Amino acid sequence: MSPIVGRAWAVVRALLITLAIALGLIAGWPMPDAAAIARLPPALRGVATTMPKVQAALLAPFRCFSDPCQLAQRWTLFSTTGGVRYRLWVEARSNRKQRFRLLYRAQDPEHAFMRGVLEYRRVRNAWNPSRRGIKQSYAPFTVWLSRAIFLQEPELNETRIRLERVQILEHGEGIASLGDFSDEIVHTRAEIVP
Amino acid sequence: MIRRWVAFWDQREPATPLAVTRICVGLVVLFDLLIAKYQGAVPALWSAPPVGLAWGASSDPAPLATRWLGASPHAAELLWGIAFAAALLMTLGALHRVAGLVLTVALIELARLEPDGDAIDQLLRVVVPVLALSRANARFALDAWFWRWRGKPPPENVPAWPRYLLILQLLWMYFSAAQNRLDPAWYPQGGFSAISHVLGDPHFARFAPGTLRRIYPLTQLATALTMVFEGSAPLMLLWLWLDPASGEPRGGKFGALTRALGVRWIWLALGASLHVGIVVTMQLGIFPFGMLALYPLLLRPEEYERVAARLL
To answer: Which residues in chain A land under pLDDT 50?
Structure first.
């Protein structure tokens, strides 16, 4: 590379890096939620409500690159903890006259059917609810899991997959069941493995 | 000012930190892909429903992998194979740039098929392409060995900007995580109870919830230290500046104090302990390993040379 080209490239590279840093900062700039905005003085509320629009406008020309590459710079790691959490239950039975049999339950070594794959982080991401609730992958997960159960256990004909609601106790005391379940999905063999 | 900014990003240095990071990141990706294979999760994760969980296959526009290979279990195995081969080549430092770019595309495609990924997947989609663009293959690499064999040894010094950029990425990730902690449990008003809560979450706890109640005060201390560590991440740039490789005394009495106290090393040790603590007490997959894989970037090339000189 000739010295002139080398110098020009150094400038272009510095510009590209500056752009990348600026876009990263804009994309990662913390956006206050509705509750935080409500606590702000009235003069700042307008600014806070405009910020997401400004951010979206600044990032719009780069969305054609960042969206397909799934690039983001807001890192929400355990942003909420405690309160009501969930515990996955996987049950199955042969026919409707029988009670469901527990096959897998999170944190239950006695019921550990397919535990290895269910607890592999990528599979867990499919069924573990985020702070916004269950993910889009939850329904396909129940279909995939039911199919795997029906193929492995020919005597089973119906599955029930659901999330037990538990309360995280304070001072590290563990969890207490709230006695109810959410996001229950039942599948039958006829529906999944025709 | 602009000239100094351009000169800053044009600096060169020995490739050791980038090479070590390339190997560590490559190993983490390989390990994760191997677990997926060992658990028999490959067709499940990257085939379209009803056979698999890859609901992203039906998104509009469809992922390139779906358009080119389809979304069947065979296509999932093929995509996995491409990602694995690229990660292996990148770890070995063979065909580094091509391997890194193929791995980048593969990681993006895997994520498009299965969009509910973790933070570590998001981070790797940034780190791998930057490493691919670097000269991380100038040391500890088959490419470097091949060049030497051909009589054209790799340069002693390589562009330093990928290391600087990845350091900024790592520090921003920590700082952003601290900014987005809305839960009072991370703060004094919530009794610093956040880590105790996470250790009670049935989906993440390594031990049965309640097992670690005797060490509750320790979890409170860990919560406070996590917030201090993450919130102070941008200061690492200052600690690095105050402790230059040249040994030039910077920052007056304050700089001398931070060097004497080893503040940079304290921050690094805190981060490493945080991730080791996660490995021991939580089931977060490759997350802590992926983060630790970037720590070699925070050491200077001269520090590697000093360690090597002591060992050899």
So the answer is: none
The partner residue sitting opposite A175, judged by closest CB among B193, B200, B219, is B200
B186 & B295 share domain: yes
Residue B143, domain member (yes or no): yes
Q: By C-alpha distance, which of B134, B113, B118 is closest to B28? A: B118
Hey, which of A30-39, B46-55, B135-144 has the most confident mean pLDDT? B135-144
In terms of domains, do B280 and B198 share one? yes
Q: Is A3 on the interface with B (CB under 8 A)?
A: no
Tokens of B91: 């770890």
Residue B122 above 90 pLDDT? Answer: yes
Judge whether A175 is closer than 8 Å to chain B, CB to CB: yes
Same domain, B152 and B32: yes
* pLDDT tens per residue, range B171-206: 999 999 999 988 899 999 999 999 999 999 999 999
Q: Are residues B211 and B278 in the same domain?
A: yes
Q: List the single residue in B51, B180, B284 with the smallest CB-CB distance to A75.
A: B180
Q: Which of B103, B127, B176, B274 to mutate to test the interface with A (most CBs of A within 10 A)?
A: B176
Q: Among partner residues B122, B165, B179, which is closest to A72 by beta-carbon distance?
A: B122
Beta strands A175-188 and A158-168 are: antiparallel
Last residue of a domain, one of B159, B192, B213: B159
CB contact under 8 A, B53 and A144: yes
A88 and B CB contact within 8 Å: yes
* Residue in A72, A81, A117 nearest the CB of B197: A81
What is the pLDDT, as a whole number, of residue B61? Answer: 85
Q: Are residues B65 and B110 in the same domain?
A: yes
Q: B207 and B116 in one domain?
A: no
CA distance A182 to A169: 20
User: Would you give the DSSP letter of residue A184?
Assistant: E
- Would you say how long chain A is, in residues? 194
CB contact under 8 A, B213 and A122: no
Is A122's CB within 8 Å of B36's CB? yes
- What does pTM read for this prediction? 0.94
- In terms of domains, do B152 and B205 share one? no
pLDDT tier, B248 (very low <50, low <70, confident <90, very high otherwise) = confident
Residues in CB range of B165: below 8 A, 6 or more apart: A17, A20, A21, B130
Give residue B15's pLDDT band: very low, low, confident or very high (50, 70, 90).
Answer: very high
Kindly list the distances between the CA atom of residue B78 and the CA atoms of B46, B102, B261, in Å, as whole numbers in the listed order. 10, 13, 52
Residue contact A128–B112, C-beta within 8 A:
no
Expressed as residue numbers, the domain containing B237 is 177-302
